[in-house]
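Lecture 7, part B: from sequences to assemblies.

Below are the input chains for today's worked example.
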Amino acid sequence: MNLPVHTEGLTKRYGPLTAVDDLHLTVHPGEVYGFLGPNGAGKTTTLRMLLGLVRPTAGTVRLLGRPPGAGRLTGVGALIEGPAFYPYLSGRDNLAVLARYAGVGADRVALVLDLVDLTDRAGDRYAGYSLGMKQRLGVAAALLKDPRLLILDEPTNGLDPAGMADMRMLIRRLGAGGCTVLVSSHLLGEVEQVCDRVGVISRGRLIAEGSVAELRGTAGLRVLADPLDEAAARVRTLVGAERVRVVDGGLELAVEPERAAWLNAELVGAGLAVRELRPRERDLEQVFFDLIEKGTADVA
Amino acid sequence: MSRSFRAELVKLVRRPATWLLLAITLVLAVTFTYVFPYASIAGGTSGPNTDRTLPMLLPDRLVGNSLGGLPVFLGSIVLILGVLTVGGEYGWGTWKTVLSQGPSRLEVYAGKLLALAAAALAVVLAVFVVGAVSSVLIALAEGQSVHWPAAGDLLTGLGAGWLIATMWAMLGAVLAVALRSVALPVGLGLVWMLAVQNLLAAIAAPLLDWVAQAQKGLPGPNAGSLAAALGAPGDTPGVAATVGGGQAALVVAAYLVAFAVVGGVLLRRRDIG
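Predicted structure of the full complex, as C-alpha cells:
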C-alpha cells in the first residue's frame, strides 16, 4: 500500500540544534491527520522536509509511496508557513502562474478560487489582500493540482471565526472526499474538530500519536457528595484507592462512566448525599500540556 | 522546463520594475550616446568628449554606439534585473510556493535563466532600435545621408550585445542565489561594476603589472574589449581593447556559463528557508 506520508528516522540538525529528531511518521490514506505541537517544536521543519524544501540530515521520506526525486510532488498540494505570492499580480494571475508550474489547466484556477470563496476579489492585486484573503489564496494554490495528499501548515492563521469554521469544513469535506490531509496546528480545538488522528511533536520528537479519544485517555467520573471525607473513604473501598483523587471539593474517579449508576446506588445506600455524578473527560488542552511537559522532561 | 520558462516570462513581463529598468536603460542609452554628444557638437562647446564628431553619431556607427554602454552602465541595469528575477523569490518567500507545485529547483532556475536571456535580448534590441531612431534623427537634422551597417555587422553586434547583457544578468542571478536576498546582491554587484572595475582599470592596472594581466581575465574588461572590437567609442567608460574581440567573446561566454552553473549548484544544495 502506498502510504500518503511515511517517514523513517527523519532528522534535521542545524549545527548543535536538533530541530527534528528521529521522526517516524505515518499518515494513512483518507485520514485527516493533525500534527500538533507548540511553536518551535519542529512542525514546519518536518513539513518542509516532506516537500523537499529542506534536506534531512538523516532518515527517509516517502510521499504517496514515492521517494525523493522528480515527480515526487505529483498529487501533493501544500501550504507551508503562511501564504507567499507575487504582490504585483492579482490573486487570479498568481494562481495562473502557479498553474503553469504545476502543469494544470486554467479551468482549475476558477474552480479553486470558488472553493475558497475568493472569486469576487480574484482580480485585485495580492498586495491589497487582507491576511485572511492571503491565507485563502494559499489554500487555493494548494488545491490547484486536485491533490490526493494535502499538507497544510497552520491553515487558519489570520482567519476570522467564520473563516476558521469554513476552513475546518473544507478540510473535513476534502477528507470525506478521499483526500488525505496532514494539517499542522497549535490550536487544539481546531485539531480536535477536524482530525481523525493526531501526532504530538515536542522538541523535534513525536511524543504521542493516536485518535483524539485515545490521547485523552480513559474517561472517568466526577462525584460531589456529602460529607466528602466519608464519600471518599467509601469510594476508595469500592473502586480502589489508587483510582480516586480529591480535586476542587469533589472526587475524580478513574473508572468507566458506565459504572455511574452502580456507584450512585452504593453511595446513596451508604447514607451519603450525592449532589452530582457525571462523566469526566480529560480536556485535550490538559492532555497536550501534560504530554509536552513529559516530553520536555524526557529530553532533559 | 518550458512550463517554468513560460511562468517566468509572465512574471517578468507583468512586473512593473522590469519596465522601469528598461525605460532607464533606454533613456541612459539615448542621453549619453546621442543627446549629450550631439548637444556638444550642435552648440560648438568643448569638453572631454570633443573627439565625438558628427560622423560618430550617424546610423552607420549604430553597432558600436549601441554596445558602448553594456560593459558598465547598461550592464549594471541588466545585473539588477537578474537579481530581481531570482532574488525576488527570496524576498517574497515564494520559492516554497513555486516548488510546492512540483517543479524541481533546477527546472525553475533554468526557466528563470532562459527568461533572463530573452529579456537581455529584448533590452539589446530596444537599445539598437532607439539608437537607430536617434541616429536617423541626427542625420536628418544635419542633412546627412543615412547609411546603415551591413546586416552581418548588425547581427554580430546584436549577438555580442546579447552575450554581454546575458552575462551580467547571470551575475545578478548567481549573486541573488548566493546571498539569498535582493538588496545586498544589487549593492555588491553595483559596487563591483561601477567602482571596483573602474578603480582596477584606472589606478591599479597602470601601477601593477599583475593587475594589468589579471584584467585580461575579468568579465568587465572582456565585455569592454568585445564592445571595442565592434566599434564602441573608446572614450566610453569600460570600453577598452584590453584583449582581442575573439578572446573577449569566449571569456564573456565562459563567465555566462560559469555564473549560471554556480547559481544552479548553490540553489540545488541549499535548504529553501
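Note for the exam: The mean pLDDT of chain A is 88. Keep this in mind when comparing with the next example.
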